[in-house]
Amino acid sequence: MTNAIHKVAEYIRSNREGARGRNHSGIELLNRHVDYGVDYEELVIAAVQAAQSVFLKSRRTHGKPFKLTATSSAIGLAVVSRIGLTNSTYTELFCVGDLFVEAFIILGYMELEREYEGYRAPYVIYLTDTWEKLGDIPPAYEGSTLTGTSFRKFPRITGLRNPITKRPYIKRMTSERDFNQCLDEPFVKALDKLQRVPWRLNTTLVKAMRDNVSKFVDMKDSSDKGKSKRIEMKFVLNKANAIGDQTFYQAVECDYRGRVYYTESFLNFQGSDIAKGLFEFDEGKRLGPRGYYWLCIHTACSYNKSYTLDELETMPWLSKDYKTHLEEEGLDTISVDKMTLDDRAQWTLKNINMILDSAKNLEFKMDAEKPVTLLACALDLKGYLDTGEDYKSHLPIPVDGSNNGWQHLAAMSKDKQAGELVSLVPQEIQKDFYVQVAKRLIKRMPDWFAERNMPMKCIRKGIAKRGSMTRAYSAGQRKIAENMYHDCKVEGYHKKYKVTKEDCELLARNLILAINDTCVGPLKTMKFLQKVTNFIIESGETCLQWTTPSGFPVLYEVWKQKNMTFRSTIRTVGRIGHSVKIPVTTKEGNRIPCRRSFASGCSPNFVHSMDAAHMAKVIEAFPGTFRAIHDSFSTHACDIDKLVEHTKWQFAMLYNVNNFFDRIQSMLIENFKGYSVQQPELGTLKVEEVVSSDYFFS
User: Fold this and answer.
1) DSSP character at residue 679
2) Closest to 567 in 3D by CA, of 115, 97, 47, 111
3) Tens of pLDDT along 577-586?
4) What pLDDT, in 10s, does the model give residues 106-141?
5) How confident is the model over 572-576, as a mean pLDDT?
């Protein structure tokens, strides 16, 4: 074996067995806990996957250079976890991580530079042209990349840790006794159901993707993003090759709020289209007429073509007057996923020849929003039309919440205006929440927008969308401005419309005010939660605990932090200082709560806990096969009607109470005397109307 993985493994092995092994902290840890016969290739694969996960997250969030500290920490954690250690110190993690980074640098897979001038500047990683060679996993080791996948059904949940993956089902929980008290709760039943659903991969799609890799990644892109994306593709295909045509299961776990995540990296149902689009239910179900209807809708949304006002006039089959609707909204285009459900289905029927041709030729439509999922839909449509109504479909069909964070906040406050904008009430054509926010933003800054002549579709996409979405989870002005400028750069608006960082800071400030005007009730709810939190902290509590309607025990803690530097060594560079934040403690060793962060973080965490509870209750009530990505629920096409019905009713049952603020009080401050925070005034929204809304989850 002479591939890249082997070269790195040999470097680690030779350093450990040589003289250097006596004076390097990372090697000392390996010496204490690892047998000399360890399979170093597996440790290297774990290190590469961990590094790639950091790079992927960085690419998706802010597009900045890859931080050495984050990379070393992730690598160190992955390696020590692989060798079975659970209580390693920060120093040990960084020393182990830096040892592997050093190997990557010495062997030419990475380069290390200061992010900016100055000896205190942090180090960042740049990938060389050979980095992607580390994605060429030898066939004998492809199975070792599947850390969260099992080829036998996971046993029923009977304890805190998954007996196969050895990971806890709740990340921050350490008490087996506390978890055992929850075994009969809906959230445990939901976890159990999710990881016991059998999957298979669409091997036809896997082969087509392997034959057309250059369509998904730019082979000539020499940027770090390009290199990182190519190795991501390799990992997806490596894992797919290891699975083959076998039935498999994937482990899940909860964060401290109850939100569910798959533990398998890269190739999981919460991944990108190149991963998620390959998944099928192992069990097939007869499609039938209603299944065919929902499959057509899913196909249209996977392509999600946009049409101008002029193009709409050439589509007489449309059931609604979208032109008038768009003119009222200030838009000049509409995407298919903003049309009615019937028109989405009709779109597929009107374009059926193009879709069937792509299935026949195994052609990915790269102008589609989700090309892999689209081809999966096309193959299913062809199978149905060739076979008839007895055709069995294995394809997961999703229904997604419309601005789910705002949906929960609007329901809590019974804000009718906000509820209408996020589809909690019936409407003929789905309203666009981001456009309404954008309109109010334009009114606040008319001169700025007039000067740039920016069309509404660009304002919606680059300026209003992400900030409006994240504000529901208490994103502040600074974060909104950063994300806004990043989105403008991605879309090219910083050049075309001369949008600067300073502009984004001003826009973010006014965007928050525009959201305040749009979501009066939800914002009052957020402030109420902050006041409740302040009361609890002032009462001397150091954490916030509540039990969600699904029985999940939330433990919300925010501690004061201080910067701490941990040092290690990397050859060619010398001593490395990793600056990280760690909790501040008293002389007695007790952590100190951070009141300011506590209050600002309570609202988003409470909302996330409620959307997780809603999902768990839906899973408990729904009798069919179920998969989920937070606020996106999937099942067989023939069962979508039932899933939508259960999703609506469980939401209505969650919030159809006289006063949800009373419930908040009972959840958060049941045992506190002297509580005096005034509740916001409730609106006039009838939450039960959600059962008649076509676009609540669609």
Assistant:
1) P
2) 97
3) 888 887 777 7
4) 999 999 998 888 777 888 999 998 998 999 998 888
5) 84
Instruction: Count CA atoms within 13 Å of residue 338 on its CB side.
Output: 19
Question: Residues 222-246, buried b or exposed e (16+ Cβ, 10 A)?
Answer: eebbbbbbbbbbbbbbbbbbbbeee
Question: What is the C-alpha separation between 107 and 154, in angstroms, rounded?
Answer: 40
Burial class (CB in 10 A: 0-12, 13-18, 19+), 470: middle
Q: What stretch of H or E contains 127?
A: strand 123-127
Torsional class of 10: left (φ above 0), alpha (ψ -120 to 50), beta (otherwise) = alpha
pLDDT tens-digit map of 346-398? 999 999 999 999 999 999 999 999 999 999 999 999 999 999 888 999 999 99
C-alpha 392/C-alpha 285 separation (Å) is 5
User: What is residue 668's three-state secondary structure?
Assistant: helix
- Convert 161-197 to b/e letters by CB count within 10 Å (16 or more is b): ebeebebbbbeebeeeeebeebeebbbbbbbbbbbeb
Q: Which residues make beta-bridge pairs with 134?
A: none
Element (H, E) at 68: helix 68-82
Structural domains of the chain, with CATH: 1-135 (no CATH), 285-393 (1.10.287.280), 416-518 (no CATH), 524-556+594-692 (no CATH)
> Percentage of residues in the chain with pLDDT exceeding 70?
96
- The tens digit of pLDDT for each residue in 494-511 reads 999 999 999 999 999 999
CA distances (Å), origin 502, targets 270, 465, 478, 499, 616 = 35, 19, 11, 8, 43
Q: Please state, in angstroms and rounded to a whole number, the distance separating the CA atoms of residues 319 and 339.
A: 9
Give the Cα separation of 171 and 165 in Å (integer).
13
Backbone angles phi, psi at 244, to 5 degrees: 60, -130
pTM exceeding 0.85: yes
Could you give the 3-state DSSP secondary structure of residue 18?
coil
Per residue in 207-250, pLDDT tens?
A: 999 999 999 988 888 888 888 889 889 999 999 999 999 999 99
**What's the chain's length in residues?**
698
DSSP letters spanning 294-354: HHHHHHHHHH--EEEHHHHTT-TT-SS-HHHHHHHHT-SEEEGGGS-HHHHHHHHHHTHHH
How many whole angstroms separate alpha carbon 178 and alpha carbon 159?
Answer: 10
Give phi and psi for 569, each to the nearest 5. -130, 135
Q: Collapsing DSSP states into helix, strand and coil, what is residue 547?
A: strand
- Phi-psi group of 403: left, alpha or beta (phi > 0 → left; psi -120 to 50 → alpha; rest → beta): left
Predicted local distance difference test score (pLDDT) of residue 1: 44
Q: List Cβ neighbours of 298 (8 Å cut-off, separation of 6 or more).
A: 373, 377, 395, 397, 398, 637
